[in-house]
């Protein structure tokens, strides 16, 4: 039983995270499975329902296609939406944000992700331009290692800032938090070294009274966010493993629910994956 569980957890981690990160993630999953507990409860068990937003790779979508994607996400149960920004002209971004706010109404949170496309000054200008549309946060406005730039964007801009998916150590997050450069730390378990450092980052954020969000890796991050008290939103990318696993995470009325199956509760459809082998 132990050998089978280890192989299953190991294979899942290699597929999702690559060889440099799978040991820590696989062993946490195995330990929870052997304890007969879902990972979220094994790690602390705060609340297995987590607010979720839908994010797409949509910077180059036409406005009509972006709105259609949003309609589909709302019909799928999401009650918060993230869109991309960083077009050639800020006026284009502003028009798209305005159109999305008009579609969503006043109650549904709208996040905007710039994917590091701007300088500090451009980010501050965009922050003020988007603020009139009640944007929930501005994500990765500039390069992640520019701590002082992020301080300025928060201090001189008009929106909270989410960042961290491209940070790789707890010390990088520490610098951001100590400097007051981030509103929503965004550790990615596949980038920051695994579950052990992810938890340290989340607990550090709690000490700074900061809520944590995530980037991708839906099926693991729902467990990690469900284990901590200082949770904001779980991202659901426009792409994931839903087609290749049994019992994917369900979204209902804006919430994702971490499973009660032992470990991470992820079981691959190995037969279905055979057609993708090279």
Query: Outline, from the CA principal axes?
Result: globular
Strand content: 5-15%
The CATH superfamily turns out to be Enolase-like C-terminal domain
Enumerate how many helices there are, as a single number: 11
Gap between N and C termini, in Å?
31 Å
Oligomer: single chain
Q: What is the domain tally?
A: 1
Structural class: alpha/beta
CATH fold-level name? TIM Barrel
Features:
11 strands; TIM Barrel; 278 residues; single chain; nine-stranded mixed beta sheet; alpha/beta; 11 helices
How are the SSEs placed, and which strands pair?
Elements: H1 2-17, H2 22-34, H3 39-42, E1 49-55, H4 63-75, E2 81-84, H5 90-104, E3 110-113, H6 120-131, E4 135-139, H7 147-156, E5 161-163, H8 170-179, E6 184-185, H9 195-207, H10 218-226, E7 234-236, E8 245-246, E9 251-252, E10 255-257, E11 267-268, H11 270-273
Parallel strand pairs: 1-2, 1-7, 2-3, 3-4, 4-5, 5-6
Antiparallel strand pairs: 1-10, 8-11, 9-10
Helix pairs in contact: 1-2, 4-5, 6-7, 8-9
Structural features, described:
The strands form 2 sheets. Strands 1, 2, 3, 4, 5, 6, 7, 9 and 10 form a 9-stranded mixed sheet that branches. Strand 9 (251-252) and strand 10 form a beta hairpin. The chain has 11 helices and 11 strands. It has 278 residues and is α/β, with parallel strands linked by helices. It has one domain (38-267): TIM Barrel, CATH 3.20.20.120.
